[in-house]
Amino acid sequence: MKPYRVPQLAKKYVEYDMIQQHTEMPAFPDNRTRLLFVFLNRNAQGLHASEDELYALVTSLVQMGLDTHDMIDTLSGIRSPEEMRSRQLKVLAGDYFSSRFYQLLALAGRIEAISKLSDAVCEVNAGKMSLYWEMKNFRLDGAQYLSQMVRFKQELFLSFTSLIAEQDQEVWKQLLNEFSLCDTLMEEWEKRAEPDKSRFGYMFWHIYGNGDQHEQLQLSEGGAKTEVWRKLVLKYKAEDAILDKLRTAVTHIRQVLSDEQNTGIEEFECMLEPFLKLLHSSHPVVREG
Q: Which domain of life does the protein's organism represent (predicted)?
């Protein structure tokens, strides 16, 4: 197995001083990228030289582009010059990351791969429009929201399933789904302490789906002030729900990795470390009062 160096290759495309100084960027999708690289590499006989690395790199860049655009605020109102610069840089950076995958694949003559990723981008964008409509009309619960977010994280990477060895495809899809779920839950956990960020995330929809009519009305009308929000988080154990789902996903991954039929993929165990650290050290930060 050749070394995994996609994050190092991606640096020259995603690390620019102006972007890093003036706006926040999404995290590199390392888990999913590593999974794709390893499973493509296991089918080396079915690929041309360095295709495993190329496909993993361009997929990570497209994902970065989509994730960057998702960070653009859509709120109306007057913004400061710094906020305007940050917003404009997110737009430009997202477009730049996305355009790079066309260039790299075109230079390598991999036109079919361009089509695969382009189709996946269309699927993700169509799915997001549908999700936003459901959110606007309050037709979601926590499970539905989480399912869609996980789908968006893995759609691009699933484009290359046909290039993975047939005997590996089932375990590939299982691991991709579970790691995508872990990444999503980690993001939801990290924004839990910021009401403005979390109120249309998993915790919001978990509470909305379990709440009574009065509580749902408070949430839908934006009337859940900070104190009310904290009480709802405690009442419906929203933080615990995130941790419970993360714990279950980690268990599923370990079960897959321990299967005797899946020898040679034990290296993925190290990818669980951030999630295990969270599970071992976490405790709810929301308190009444």
A: Bacteria
